[in-house]
DNA sequence: AAGTGGTCTAGACCACTTT
DNA sequence: AAGTGGTCTAGACCACTTC
């Protein structure tokens, strides 16, 4: 309740209609900035789509698309016959399809990596199945410890099929696996991921600096490229006191 | 490589152009069914959008929207200048904005609930902050154990602000919290959620039937309704050997 | 040069909510 | 009755990839 048709103005002063950045994206970005900085306050109602389109001098579908972006992000809520409103809470970024290295880097920590294992092995049955290749085919097996400011936060185990089996150990010291793949022209698009938890086993507790048998947060993911082919199978475990997955869910 | 322009035909035999179901949704559903049942095989390329539109007798934007739905779900991959292809792997359903009760029910288990705590309390600071209400305001505090076929799988702790503090204990025995809320006209739209892990503490191990100090998978979520208002704050913990979150990530 | 998806326009009609 | 978002049309031009 109590949501006036508030509407700020100079939010869209610098739209570039000839540049390479899509119009809808520019509008969405500026709207998001205005919402996150409370220039458009939480709970307030937006002007209707047609008015916005007229005032910005663009078509309604373009405005709609911009708004839809923010609805999908969970910042806005639309109701037919009512209007579009800003959600009350601040919104966390979704689970991104980036490597942990990028995540840590973007949150201004200093990530480092130590490689424990770097070997080419014939794929065991389960790995082959996940990678959609024949059992026994050569794959690159990696096991690394990821540190943030010197503190271990995760153990990363990865399996990569050809043509990535020649990735060098040195490449992975200063860059995340995904950065290395991107540099090789791999466009990562889709991943299937499962998150769960279990006791630390083997050397994991020592590597992470937690007590034996203590809890670890686990992920298992299969990553696909642009062409829908499998690029990587990863089994990771994280220190749960230092890491959590934050996401925004939007009802379909 | 090796992706022919395969294209089946009688997939779209029963489109209803006058019913209430949107055209793009019908097309997307039928396409998804065809892909999941391998009528359209993994890795194959789709016809281009304009041809599809012509053959189905609809406009290109409508076809585009249908395809986009499946791209967002991670079933299809689009590349400019190349075409649209089916992703290799089978796709898991994303983390849904449903209650655990619904989840368990839809996977054909028999969920039951035992309420441990059902009390109205003045909101402590942290709870008030999450619910965006004043400290000390009355909230409903719930603590329940969720079982699947008699086996405990989760401990659910929830805090609800007015006007939901009058939800009766009986209501929650046979239905999930979200079902109860929906029955009261609440349309759930957005949630911010964090997933992590920790040791079981207090009575949790006994309630879940796991060893003392064993690992539990935890979630913390703030749920918003249609109007962007906070409906619920929940802190849940799950038996990690019986529960995991599966999701499909799609690069923006 | 030809073919693909990406963006954008300028409307139209409808379903739903509020007055 | 008036106002809102939801869907759909029939085009247009562009950027990118392949031949």
UniProtKB/TrEMBL annotation, chains A, B:
InterPro entries: Bact_HTH_transcr_reg, Chorismate_lyase_/UTRA_dom_sf, Tscrpt_reg_HTH_GntR, UTRA, WH-like_DNA-bd_sf, WH_DNA-bd_sf
Record keywords, A-Z: DNA-binding, Transcription, Transcription regulation
A UniProt-annotated Pfam family: UTRA
GO biological process: negative regulation of DNA-templated transcription
Keyword Transcription regulation on entry: yes
Domain HTH gntR-type as annotated: residue spans: 21-89
Database matches in SMART domains: HTH_GNTR (SM00345), UTRA (SM00866)
Domain of life of the source: Bacteria
Keyword Nucleotidyltransferase included in the entry's annotation: no
GO function terms (MF aspect): DNA binding; DNA-binding transcription factor activity
CDD domains: WHTH_GntR (cd07377)
Protein name stated in the entry: GntR family transcriptional regulator
Lineage: Bacteria, Bacillati, Actinomycetota, Actinomycetes, Micrococcales
């Amino acid at each position: 309740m109590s949501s006036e048709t508030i509407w700020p103005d100079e939010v869209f002063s610098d739209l570039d209609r000839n540049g390479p950045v899509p119009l809808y994206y520019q509008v969405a970005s500026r709207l998001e900035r205005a919402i996150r900085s409370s220039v458009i306050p939480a709970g307030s109602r937006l002007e209707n789509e047609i008015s916005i389109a007229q005032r910005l001098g663009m078509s309604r579908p373009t405005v709609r698309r911009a708004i839809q972006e923010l609805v999908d992000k969970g910042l806005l809520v639309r109701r037919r016959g009512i209007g579009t409103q800003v959600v009350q809470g601040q919104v966390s970024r979704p689970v991104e399809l980036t490597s942990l290295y990028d995540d840590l880097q973007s949150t201004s920590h200093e990530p480092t990596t130590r490689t424990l294992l770097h070997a080419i092995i014939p794929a065991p049955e389960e790995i082959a199945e996940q990678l959609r290749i024949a059992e026994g085919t050569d794959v690159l097996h990696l096991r690394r410890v990821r540190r943030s400011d010197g503190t271990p936060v995760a153990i990363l185990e990865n399996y990569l099929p050809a043509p990535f089996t020649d990735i060098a150990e040195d490449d992975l010291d200063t860059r995340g696996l995904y950065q290395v793949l991107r540099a090789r022209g791999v466009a990562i698009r889709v991943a299937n991921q499962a998150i769960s938890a279990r006791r630390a086993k083997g050397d994991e507790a020592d590597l992470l600096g937690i007590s034996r048998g203590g809890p670890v947060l686990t992920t298992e993911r299969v990553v696909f490229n642009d062409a829908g082919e499998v690029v990587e199978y990863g089994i990771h475990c994280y220190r749960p006191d230092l890491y959590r997955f934050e996401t925004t869910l939007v009802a379909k």
